[in-house]
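Input for the complex:
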Amino acid sequence: DTEVTQTPKHLVMGMTNKKSLKCEQHMGHRAMYWYKQKAKKPPELMFVYSYEKLSINESVPSRFSPECPNSSLLNLHLHALQPEDSALYLCASTPGLDTEAFFGQGTRLTVV
Amino acid sequence: ILNVEQSPQSLHVQEGDSTNFTCSFPSSNFYALHWYRWETAKSPEALFVMTLNGDEKKKGRISATLNTKEGYSYLYIKGSQPEDSATYLCAPPPPGTALIFGKGTTLSVSS
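Predicted:
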């Protein structure tokens, strides 16, 4: 199994809603990432979890809250988002920085 | 902030042309260099990961070289095809950091 699975594929939420994005991998990778990708720009790093601990937070607003319940699962909890947060949210995992990263297909988020 | 530069920003070639582009990065504290192919609204797809100075890797018509002493990597595409149209991203993560991509080179191949 060389897949990173993200759910849901699409999500529309209001600015007062609370929702969560889910990412799962069963490759035994100990580093998992959240990226945000807007328009025609490359993915921007948001968070990195290494061995289930948050190792990097790229100054992301607190309305985005990551969680890593176990080594296979990564969540991104969303609360009080703004329309400008609408984007494709990508999850990735890797065994280490010297090996390729595997990306999920992303969740297309629309905030209304 | 990691200083990664990719050039050119974009280029347009005809089918059958060969082309190449550059990723420049700080040569100090080098650990690995990643190349990814990315189409808008899709996930990046790994092409190569290189770690050793002088590394050269090849996948079909695409190849890459690495010079860690001077801080650059070249990506070559031989005989470009329309399906090669995409943005090519590089990322040179220093130890203890993460994959942060450059702005990419967007290639457009006309038939």
